[in-house]
Amino acid sequence: MKKVLNISIREFERLGMRSSAWVLILFIPLFIFLYLGSIYEEGSVQHVPVAILDDDKSPFSQQVIDNIEASPKLEVKEILDSQNELQTYFVSHPDIKGVYYIPKNFSKNIFRGKQEKIVVYTNSSNIIYGNLLYKEAATFINTLSAKIILNALTVKGIPYEKAVKMVMPVKTQTRPLYNPHYNYLYYLVPGLTTVLLQMIVFFLATRSINSEYASNSFKELYQISGGSTLKLLFGKMLAYIVIGMVIAILIFALIHPILGIPSSANTIPFLWIILLFVVTNCSLGIMISILFKDQAIAMDMAFVYNSPAFVFSGFTFPIIAMPAFNSWYANLIPYTHFLKAYIKGMEMETSFSYLIPQVIAMLVFILVAYIVSVIGLQFHYKKTVQ
């Protein structure tokens, strides 16, 4: 145990002499995490700027406009005069995200019993705005349609209470779970901070062994370990595990509370999953460091391997909808499995039994990394001795 601690202390001393390590250990956790959180401080889109084009200009179309203005998420910025403006309107008014168009004879056709449409032109280059505009339109149009049908039924002499039931025989009641406020701060920031945790630990570990080759200190390292590959690996890993866990605790105990992200009842029990996640990335980083003696090439490999982690994890797009190769590759990245465990363990607050598949996957990563690392270390040690 003493030799393992000696190697870990030595590794901390070596890290202290690297400016790049200080950037990863201090700058990213203390500044980048908070900066990312500030981007999503609002949590969700509060107001979407829209315009209205009313070609009907009737008292009923004015009611429609009143409904649009009353929508909590919509902010009417302009009333347009001609449909011809729509051809270039979004280009000349990039701040406007949607236009509600009320066609000619809108009210006449409705009172004649004909179906009419309100056209919603959306700037869907940003899918969030597009979906929100559609949702708001569907809400107030459904309400408006129900009022029209209700008035028609009551005019025919049907009692109001019975007419209401005829208009809406079934009500939909939605109960969103785990992020009921649809808050992007709660949704995105935990994903961004944990994927950066993976990258920090991985990148630090990627220079753990090849830096010894570069400074011709590999033989000295082996002597400190007493010729034990196991002690050498554990000593190196211990340093990065400590750093990774300190950053992880900083994320969940300081960064998330400062940003206002609700804590989970499973936070403390989940720490051992985070520990496993950190060990996984330490192991893979050290394996890369052993396989590639050139530090620049090793860092390039680490970057190529880690950079798609967030996209391939299923966080922004479901893995099941990805092409077969991408879906397969996604499972070769530890973060994919950690994210599944995080959602189930932290957000859904499930029991350990639901996390077993993800735990097994991370243990497989560790086992493969350990086997490759041992073989690689023995190979390099023989070359050094010779």
What does this structure look like?
With 386 residues, the chain is mainly alpha-helical. It has two domains: 2-41 and 182-385, no CATH class; 48-167, abc type-2 transporter like domain (abc type-2 transporter like fold). 66% of the residues lie in helices and 6% in strands. The chain is built from 17 helices and four strands. It has helices spanning 2-16, 19-39, 59-70, 86-92, 106-111, 127-155, 160-167, 184-205, 210-214, 218-224, 229-259, 267-291, 295-306, 309-312, 324-330, 334-347, 356-385, and strands spanning 48-54, 74-80, 98-102, 119-122. It has a four-stranded mixed beta sheet with strand order 2-1-3-4, covered by helices on one side. Helix 3 (59-70) links the parallel strand 1 (48-54) and strand 2. The longest helix is centred in the middle third of the chain and has 31 residues, at 229-259. It starts with a helix and ends with a helix. The model has no long low-confidence stretch (mean pLDDT 81).
Q: Structural class, please?
A: mainly alpha
Overall radius of gyration:
29 Å
Strand order of the largest sheet: 2-1-3-4
Q: What is the arithmetic mean of pLDDT?
A: 81
Number of helical regions: 17
* Beta-strand proportion: 5-15%
Total strands: 4
What is the multimeric organization of the chains shown?
A: single chain
